[in-house]
Amino acid sequence: MATNQKTASPAKKSQGFTGVRGAFWIIVVCAVVAFTLFFMWFGHESHFADATKEQPIDVWGTIFKGGIIVPVIHTLLYTVIAMTIERWLALKTAFGKGALPKFVSEIKAALNANDFAKAQQLCDKQRGSVANVVGASLRAYKEMEATSGIKKAQKIAKISQAHEEATQLEMPTLTMNLPIIATIVTLGTLTGLLGTVVGMIRSFSALSAGGGADSAALSQGISEALINTAFGIGTSWCAVVAYNYYTNKVDKLTFALDEVGYSIAQTYEANHTEEA
Questions:
Q1: Partners of 48 in the beta sheet?
Q2: Within a 10 A sphere around the Cβ of 190, how many other Cβ atoms?
Q3: φ and ψ at residue 211, rounded to 5 degrees
Q4: Measured CA angle at 177 (ends 174, 181), to 5 deg
Q5: What residues contact residue 52 under an 8 Å CB cut-off, 6+ apart?
Q6: Please, are residues 127 and 100 in contact by the beta-carbon 8 Å criterion?
Q7: What is the distance between the alpha carbons of residues 155 and 146, in angstroms, rounded to a whole number?
């Protein structure tokens, strides 16, 4: 029971924003905002020359002429922005209060000096996912020092196992909502392509009808095609940049965890001899 209580204690150190688990509601809110802006702002009569809304007089009216697919793409775009902010806040908490490279180097220096009290103090000061994992490994180290009757290799394996288990507990927080951003990378382009196709269909329909009276329909179809293409590409661009940026940050954190975990296991191996 005492071991379970020690294992649960690191969770108390992860103070701060750890991510939004109900990402569906973020998408819903973004959709409400997108459709509200589309009809209430972009489609407002002040952005058109007449009440029929056929001739936009500014960029907002031109965006409205992109058709109903525009708010769908805007929903994806706003979701990317919201998820980007959410991931930034969550990873800021996960990395802890200090610079990660400095923390790793200080932990390794403390381990080389066999100063585990200082290493624990560094974890308490740093907090975040890395500190939680290192703290779990240090507790496993001390537990193995107090344990007798098993081989040295088994003790090292248990320390490594404690490190891996702590890492697996932290990983969901680190990668949460990244799959949504990765999905929008493709959805943005495909939705923009759908709007382009719909716009071109309208344009060719206007051309097939012939006559000057259909010039407005032709213009609307071209506007719909180009606007949806632009917003679709822009949304995918934002999504791929955000996804690659945060994936890189998660990889850096994972590499730091592996480095410290290896150092702790090697320190135990160097400081302890095989029991008779």
A1: 56
A2: 11
A3: 90, 150
A4: 120
A5: none
A6: no
A7: 11
Inform me whether the pLDDT recorded for 28 exceeds 80.
yes
Output the six-digit token pair for 130: 């890395």
Q: How far apart are CA 25 and CA 132, in angstroms?
A: 29
Burial (CB < 10 A; 0-12, 13-18, 19+), residue 272, is: middle
For 204-257, the pLDDT digits (tens) are 777 776 655 456 666 667 777 888 899 999 999 999 999 999 999 999 888 888
Residue range 83-94, pLDDT digits in tens: 999 999 989 888
DSSP string, the chain: -HHHHHHHGGGGG--S----S-HHHHHHHHHHHHHHHIIIIIT-GGGBSSTT--SB-SHHHHHHTT-THHHHHHHHHHHHHHHHHHHHHHHHHHH-SS-HHHHHHHHHHHHHTT-HHHHHHHHHHH-HHHHHHHHHHHHHHHHHHT--SS-HHHHHHHHHHHHHHHHHHHHHHHHTTHHHHHHHHHHHHHHHHHHHHHHHHHHHHHHHH-SGGGHHHHHHHHHHHHHHHHHHHHHHHHHHHHHHHHHHHHHHHHHHHHHHHHHHHHHHHHH-PPP-
pTM of the model: 0.81
- Nearest-angstrom CA–CA distance, 143 and 147: 6
Angle at 80 between CA 76 and CA 81, to 5 degrees: 120
Q: Which amino acid is at 7?
A: T
Q: What is the rounded CA–CA span in Å between residue 233 and residue 228?
A: 8
